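Render this sequence as a predicted structure.
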Amino acid sequence: MFRASPRSWLVLTVLVVGVLVLTYSATTPEPRAAGDGRSAAEPSRDLPLPSGGTAQLSKCGLDEWPRPEPRGRAERSKHPQMALTSWGYHDPGPKGPGRPRFTLRASVRTGDRPLVLEAPVAEGRVTVDFYGPHGEGVRASARGLTATVMDGGYPGEPVDVPASGRFRVDPGEELRLEVELPAKAVCPGHSLPDVGKCVPEGTNDAADCPMVTLTLSDPAIRAYRAGTADDRTAGSFSDRLVAVFLEPEISPA
């Protein structure tokens, strides 16, 4: 009867283990290198918008304070001031004129002195941010937009640029502005029609609805706020108007 020597058993064992290793390697997928197969939770990248500006998709889901940090003195001063008057999605349908759009309307008022803004108003210097309720974070964000001056009708028509090339806001009057939120600035998981919806729909609680931040910057705003300030301090004033819809109040300490 054949009896294997210890050396023969060692050789057989090595051969069996080798076959098993080769079989495992052939049937097991290679591990992914670091950075492959990005998670769905990984932040999106900012993208240029076809109409100009940038979709700030890197902000999607961030639960940040809706009012940005001031960029200088008097940013929250009473004059001049901008307020959001309305916003929403409108689809004219297949038979209606135009295309589906999400727009924001705002008004600019001044104090006891006129405010003169170059046309187009705040060209490439308008930012829009939508924040979902209950800590959802940013639903849509775009910077580098331009405001359109509108008349007082409904839904309103763009106003022709004056011959001077500037829009003048006199005391007691208002300048009506419209800003369009581009569809590509909406975060993944949302669409243009639902970016402004409350959760739950039909709620009567403002805390269930989105917060909206609209900012607009123009050198004329800084000059207005500086007023009679000397040249050394004029540059310390903010050139930005900020409007926040449903801004949360800060609880007293």
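Summary. Residues 6-40 have pLDDT under 50 and may be disordered. The CA atoms of residues 131 and 211 lie 5 Å apart.
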